[in-house]
Amino acid sequence: MRVLIMSDMEGVSGIVTWDWVNYGSPMYQEGRRLYTQEINAAVRGAKAAGATEIVVVDCHGAGGDMSFNSLIPEDLHPDCEFVAHHTWGRYTEILERGCDAALMVGMHARAGTPDGVMCHTISTTTWRSVWFNDDEVGEFGINAALCGHYGCPVVMVTGDEATEREAKEIMGDGLEAVVVKKGLSRFSARQVPPVRARQMIEDGAKRALLDLPKKRTRPYIPGKPTTITVHLSTVDTASRFMGRPGVELIDPLKAVSVAEDWMTAWNQVWHY
Ligand SMILES: [Zn+2]
């Protein structure tokens, strides 16, 4: 069984503000430790369920040279392999070879979620909301669609309560969700301590993967043709969407990309 773990920092237990996830901030190194241990918990769970190949891809943009490179190599579980420094949402090698399931660990809610801890979509300043046809999505939905394009279902998510809600909108109630905190606002939360959170994640990953034959979730594939709508926060960012084939700025703050399938529409609009 081949398993992809897509990981982010904002949804990790113990992490509630930017200081813990931004390179150069006082608590960043502590945040990396908490992050790496939650990933290890998911790896243990996957291994217990019979995974024979486990690849972790760090999807957290910490800034500078630490973007997509926040896991601590020395502390990582020896039974996984990990991808660092790869452009966000562009690691597809394991998916192309055929991946049985994806686990999303440490995820956060989309921009504009009142109880979403550190909620944002891609960029805190550029993207206000993103839609795949009639589904409003955040980073979870984008990653789920990437996996879905290759026929890979997301079977577990971990993060706060708002992330669970958002992920189940996309994947349905069969999705295994491990909630390690409840957002009280964007920058405050009631939390499960890391030690217990890790046990919950290990158990959740094992449960989700053991249940694979039951197909509790299906790959997320937005309807075809696919329309991707991006609502922008500010007019100056609109220039990034100008002159891109297949993309139209239908008003100063709204870019629309239409194509035969999600991947093509996404490739047209994705400017990073
Ligand atoms: Zn992040």
Description of the structure:
This protein is α/β, with parallel strands linked by helices. Helices cover 26% and strands 26% of the residues. The protein has two domains: 2-109 and 137-214, Dipeptide transport protein (Rossmann fold), CATH 3.40.50.10780; 226-269, no CATH class. The chain contains six helices and twelve strands. The strands form two sheets. Strands 3-2-1-4-7-8-9 form a seven-stranded mixed sheet, with helices on both faces. Helix 1 (28-48) packs parallel to helix 5. It is globular. The two termini are 31 Å apart. The model has no long low-confidence stretch (mean pLDDT 96). It binds zinc ion.
Classify the fold: give the CATH topology of the largest domain: Rossmann fold
Structural class by helix and strand composition: alpha/beta
Strand content range? 25-35%
How big is the Rg? 18 Å
Give, in spatial order, the strands making up the sheet with the most strands: 3-2-1-4-7-8-9
Q: How would you briefly describe this protein structure?
A:
The chain is an alpha/beta fold and 272 residues long. It has 6 helices and 12 strands.
Features:
binds zinc ion, alpha/beta, 2 domains, 272 residues
List the helices and strands and how they pair.
Elements: E1 2-7, H1 28-48, E2 53-58, E3 81-83, H2 93-96, E4 101-107, E5 127-132, E6 135-137, H3 139-149, E7 154-160, H4 161-171, E8 176-185, E9 188-191, H5 194-210, E10 226-232, E11 247-251, E12 254-259, H6 262-269
Parallel strand pairs: 1-2, 1-4, 2-3, 4-7, 7-8
Antiparallel strand pairs: 5-6, 5-10, 8-9, 10-12, 11-12
Helix pairs in contact: 1-5
This protein binds zinc ion (ZN).
